[in-house]
Amino acid sequence: MCETVLAYIHHKTPVLTIRAGTEAMAHIRQNGLQPQDIDIIPGAAGGPKGIGLCGLDQAIFADFLPRAPVHGDGKRTCFGASIGSWRFAAIAAHGGIEGPKRLAELYTDMQFSKKDKIPDVTKRCHDMLQQLIEDKMDNLITHPWMQLVIVVVKSRHIFASDHVVPLGLALAGVFGSNMLSRRANRLFMQRGFAYAHPQHNPLPLNDTQEFFTHHLPLTMDNAMHLLMASAAIPAVMSAVKDIPLAPKGSYRDGGLLDYHLDLAYRPKGLVLYPHFTDRIIPGWFDKGLSWRKANAQNHQRTVLISPSPQYLASLPLGRLPDRSDFARFAGNDSARKKCWQQSVAESQRLGDEFLELVEKQQIIEKMIVF
User: Fold this and answer.
1) What is the DSSP annotation of 135-167?
2) I want to staple 90 with a disulfide (CB 3.0 to 4.6 A). Which of 99, 168, 195, 284 is the partner?
3) Which range of residues forms the domain containing residue 250?
4) 208 has pLDDT over 90
5) Is 158 contained in some domain?
6) Average pLDDT over residues 208-235
7) What InterPro entries is this protein classified in (predicted)?
8) Confidence band, pLDDT 50/70/90 cuts, at residue 114
9) Quick count: other Cβ atoms within 10 Å of Cβ 144?
10) Residue 333 placed within a domain
């Protein structure tokens, strides 16, 4: 399926789309895009799409950001939901080159069958996460310039159950009420931010009071639980219950509430957002709601970098890897793996173009205002 699609034609077709808020554009027009100005980096939920950004993550975290420490306390805050938290955890554990590479390889090698039940999927993901982090868990807590923030949701009422009937009713309730108002999610979910030493380390966010928010300590004892919770898709993986040092209850995928992390950022400098798409969708249940848009005020200082339509069309499947590929290639994992591996290899073009635009100070010419 892939062989006839992939043609390595490296003419100057743009591979990146770059959008920015008005304040970010003004800043970059005057100063260029400088690593010392980047103090917030979001990582969205999106499953295997995350490995399709491998080359861009490597360019940003292994080349661009290490060129200069961030202004102020030297920590860059990385908000990660679901695969976003796993991307950042891999980078914190193994560095900007090896981390994304390791995540891409392990994710690509995973296999599922139609017979797998929720416990089977959960165990396979847990085993993969253990291989991803290995004995580097302390790097997630004590990284010298990255403050990892793992985004989760705490389920409420019947949404806390993994049993088919109450969970199905809860999902129907979330879907229906969310169509009327995003704030209705408060009936079923609370937001959770897990990071090191929250009592002494306020996050660079404005307090909107939109959702009740738990600020949870990230420690060696609970980091694995929190990473699993951040990716625990309802009806696909089991909720993570009673996480150490967190209020008792069931914790699930952070992307349910914060799919693309439309948060009220308060950067000292800029938000650099390597993303799968040029659209920011607030919550997972907003995906089909064309009228549900991100709050533009949250992204005045955001620079969002995503694959261009031309780049996506050149990939083996005409898009980034997707969780649906496990079903599409059921019984033919070798074909899926080949497509995914080719997409990961092609992602080096994303990183190359980003670094070239930075070096030549041409990034402002590519920017489109949000």
Assistant:
1) T-HHHHHH-SSEEEEEEEEEE-GGGG--SHHHH
2) 99
3) 35-295
4) no
5) yes
6) 96
7) Acyl_Trfase/lysoPLipase (IPR016035)
8) confident
9) 9
10) no
